[in-house]
């Protein structure tokens, strides 16, 4: 009888880390109001990891037992060479699932190639189906381009695509029902996310526009029957099946339903910082380790194993306070 080797990435609280989210760029072609300021200064090229360095870090993680990698950003599809990187990561032996989070702006032309690169699933951000509101929330995005991108991803054969919608009170909270109806017609899933206080934003007061997952759920239950799903996806979403459909509705509720106890993930920022918690600054500078020891994967792996010792127990988000975390979601690997 064969037994599985003991997990190599395990933190002080006994949580096994088998999932890494990798931000391959802090740049983006949108400027969503909850994610960024209007005028952003992005990192200079030399400060962010090269594509080769990102691939090396992914290889180290997979050799340490990570079996799921999500590529994100910023907008990952605006980084030149992203497709080759995805293809190379997709080939790593031991990786079970390569996934992508995107704003959908490039999917019309890239969905087919993404599929052939081995990307298994795609999350697409969509906060509203109203063109004017979409422009207000993304500042520069075009709704119809994203909708065509969603169709292109379906045509390319992606299944169980998930929409991500950040809901803000009195901006798009009335959109939730239409987004669920849209997800049902496309036979895809959707998660609603409570806004997290990452970085300073200039467009709104986060505490005033907080709209809890429970409020969204109560609104939705006037229009749909939500049946609790028993399956545990291992992630922060609590899922419900919309009766009479195959669409699952998830709620990611960092404020109202803390999910840290089952956290199985870490994040690699575009500049090569291994971030151990979305809501804390505990991190290890993997870029420095990589650049000091470019041919020594062992050093990189020891740094990653060592980092598990500083993974915090939980995040400390407080909407009433000024943000304690000054990095934006785009620089974080959301
Ligand atoms: N650009 C891609 C996109 O928008 O899908 C990937 C990166 S984006 C940072 C990843 C996810 O983080 C998106 O679903 C976005 O809606 C979410 N997000 C960004 N800022 C957030 C915030 N302050 N609170 C909660 N979610 C946020
Ligand atoms: Fe760009 Fe995604 Fe942030 Fe919107 S949420 S600004 S699309 S990184």
From TrEMBL:
Family statement: Belongs to the radical SAM superfamily. MoaA family.
Molecular function GO labels: 4 iron, 4 sulfur cluster binding; cyclic pyranopterin monophosphate synthase activity; GTP 3',8'-cyclase activity; GTP binding; metal ion binding; S-adenosyl-L-methionine binding
Keyword terms of this UniProt record: 4Fe-4S, GTP-binding, Iron, Iron-sulfur, Lyase, Metal-binding, Molybdenum cofactor biosynthesis, Nucleotide-binding, S-adenosyl-L-methionine
Domain Radical SAM core as annotated: residue spans: 12-237
Gene: moaA
Group of enzyme by EC: lyase
SMART domains registered for this protein in UniProt: Elp3
Database matches in CDD domains: Radical_SAM, Twitch_MoaA
Protein name: GTP 3',8-cyclase
UniProt source species: Candidatus Methylumidiphilus alinenensis
Comment on bound cofactor: Binds 2 [4Fe-4S] clusters. Binds 1 [4Fe-4S] cluster coordinated with 3 cysteines and an exchangeable S-adenosyl-L-methionine and 1 [4Fe-4S] cluster coordinated with 3 cysteines and the GTP-derived substrate.
